[in-house]
Amino acid sequence: MNCFFYSGSSCFPITNVYYKMITHQLLLVSLLSLVQAQEAILGAFVLHRHGDRTTKSWPPAKLTDLGYSQVYEDGTWYRNRYITTTSSSMGMETDIVELSQLSVQAPVDIVLQAAAIGWLQGLYPPVGAAKGSQKLANSTTIEAPLNGYQLIPINGITAVAISSNLENTVWLQGSSGCLNAIISSNNYFISQEYMDTKAKTDSFYQSIYPVVNGSFSKGYTSYKNAYAGEQTS
Question: What is the pLDDT of residue 9?
Answer without folding.
Answer: 41
